[in-house]
What does this fold into?
Amino acid sequence: MVNYREILRLHSLAYTQRQIASSVHSSRNTISEVLRLAESIGLSWPLEDSVTNQEIMVLLYPEKLNAVNPRKAPDYSYIHKELAKPGVNLTLLWTEYCSGCNASGRQPYMYTQFCDNYRKWARLTKATMRIQHKPGEAMQVDWAGSTLTYQDPVTGDVYDTYIFAAVLPCSCYAYAEACEDMKSTNWLLCHVHAYEYFGGVTRLLIPDNLKTGVVKNTRYDTVLNQSYQEMAEHYGTAVVPARVLHPKDKSLAEGTVKFATTWIIAALRNRKFFSFEEVKQAVAEKLEDLNKRPFKKREGNRRTAYYDEEKAFMKPLPVTPYEPAVWSTVKVPLDYLISDGKNKYSVPFDLIGEEVNIRLTRNFVEIFFHGSRVASHKRISRQQRDPIIQPEHMPMEHRKYLSYNADEFLRWAHTAGESTTAVVKHFLTAGSEPEQGYKSCASLTKLGDRYGLKRLENACHRVLEYTSKPAIRNISTILKNGQDKLPPNGNAAPEKVLPVSHGITRGAAYFRRGGRQS
It folds into this structure.
């Protein structure tokens, strides 16, 4: 039998066909034919020690096998390409293979041998296995256990940075990024940056069971963090957390994290950093080196494998990237204001005492009640003293109070009449500042709402007839007693309207008799 292994080995060492023919004692035509057929099916050195010449001959000359074997040899190259398509598996392809054999009168392989032969073909040709990992199928993510540090050049304080890693299992294409913490915002942003780096989205997203992504993951129920679920919906991917205590569910992510630990974190162990930006830049540079590092057992690297075999199967990115949002639940206090940690924002006052959901993004604060958005504010990045309040969220009394100003009170008084206007002007000018008279003006407006502007005008006119310093108490008493309804010449008793002067009112006769009259 021709020594196919030796031919491939010597060819990999750049021997000429004449030299190979002399060494293996075969003709140069045989050597040329073997090398041509091996190149056509992607077979190259090195090969595993368990691979025999018989197995190589079956790959190179399937027609010879068919001459003595009544079973039809499958087209493994075709099977490999078809497995890359969504929804296609070996069971479907074996069924189609059997149908083709029956149509041509040939005997097919049984399913087990069919699968074993494909695996052997993929192992010999170093083809990416399609059985477990299809292109564009999943992205696995995790945090690295080790950290990088940097030192503040001013204070001398040392800070940790954390490495996020994502990997596409089919091509092993990786993404890594340095973060200042492992909180929810950075966790979500790293996913956004990973999708942008890959230039597409996978059908599935496989994280570990960390709290920033998964609230609960049991045999019967999986509850995702609301922000994580929102991000997945934005990109059209499905989150399938790895099972608890089943690291093989994301073995490539675990392996990539270890690989990143070696070729990124360990490679930078002796380098001194003095800012987070320096760490982030160094990690990005090492990531490129990692993806361009040649494979040991097959040609190419992670980047070429991705663009050759997986890029075409990735889902397109959405038009706009996802903006990370943090959700929380609070009970609306009596002042109907909620906080984003820096500033306070209003919600409708009728939700006082109710639990609402708050969605915080970089630019907006949104409040939801029973799934419906009830308020939205533009988020203020700097801290300010006054809360951000929308007038429609306030009760009518509070809304009126905010609208208090001298011009507004005077404008309202003109609608009532000249006497009311004179009283309002007195209230606004009686103190050192107009604001000191706002309370009296507000009380006057309430009297106008209660008794009507016409009666209020009459009451103000009567008060101004006997005093130049009207008071709310005087006007209120006139309205309660109905004195504003008396004609101008009526028996109005000014004494009964609380006079301004509080001198002696009992008369001289009382004191001449030396006491109270009997």
